[in-house]
Amino acid sequence: MSRPSTNASQETPSRDTISPAILEQASLWMARLWSDDATDAQRDACLQWRQAAPEHERAWQQLRAIDGRLGTLPSHAARSKLFEASPTVSRRHLLQWGGVALLAGGLGFGLPRTPQWQRQFADYATGIGEMRDVTLGDGTQLRLDTDTAINVSFDAHQRRIHLVRGGVLITTSKIADARMFSVMTREGLSLPFGTRFSVQQHTDSTHVAVYEGRVALERRGSDERTTLEAGQQAAMSASRVTSPTPLDPTEIARFQGRLVAESMRVIEVVEMLARYRHGVVRCAPEVANRRVSGVFSLQDTDRALASLADALSLEVVYRTPLWVTLKPNLAK
User: Fold this and answer.
1) Domains of the chain in sequence order
2) Model pTM above 0.90
3) Residue 61 pLDDT
4) Nearest to 56 by CA among 76, 95, 30
5) Residue 187 burial (10 A CB sphere; 0-12, 13-18, 19+)
6) What is the mean pLDDT of the chain?
């Protein structure tokens, strides 16, 4: 299998200057171009992506530089079927899973912080664009959002869910259980009392929305608790818990595979859809602040983009299935 050629410098970039998101995009491009059926149009599109920003080219060179180290994964990674000794495990398979993006952070350095690593080694997880229903041993029901990873720890004294990344809708069991139930995120604990609620782990905060019952929020390192009643939501950061505010009635729709937009900016719709599909989704600056109302599918993002374009007379431009841009439709 031949590799795409490059005229770029072979200097290995500093891993500190490359975001994990860009590394994952680079790994997807490399996986596509290392396949036997890669087309000239795809090679041209990849070159355009590399030239679009200096960080793109640095990410590309980072992956090329570590190509020779694909066989040096740590032994405990054998938990993944992709790392088992098998002639069917190709370089492209590893790239599609995100293996090279993991290695780009340095073997053994920073791996637990990457999305691919967190999903692969969690008790329950979903990929990008996937949702999953889970019923725990005590009868608690979970709905995992896209790109989510959780670990579950039940013992004789407590029932705890660790939300590593993403979001989860939780309906606690109706069966009486003396063990305390809690959801742990980076910022602290969410302690429900006979309830249905959702928890989202953002970059620097935890967002909690309560649909039934009550949930107490306890920030890490603090004994103070903020209680949310049904119909309320709040955010918890490292320094504080925001005051409860009325619940956004459209929030729960995302766990049902729908984006309900009410006078939402195009850029906000695009950013939400991007969470549910691989690759890059962008909109031209001149349409970013236009507003739209409607219901869009999160399970079929191509259809959602087409609906958005129809509603505002825009054009959906596919450079590749992994690179989509919304632009003004100059023909109308």
Assistant:
1) 15-120 (no CATH), 124-248 (2.60.120.1440), 257-328 (3.55.50.30)
2) no
3) 79
4) 30
5) buried
6) 81
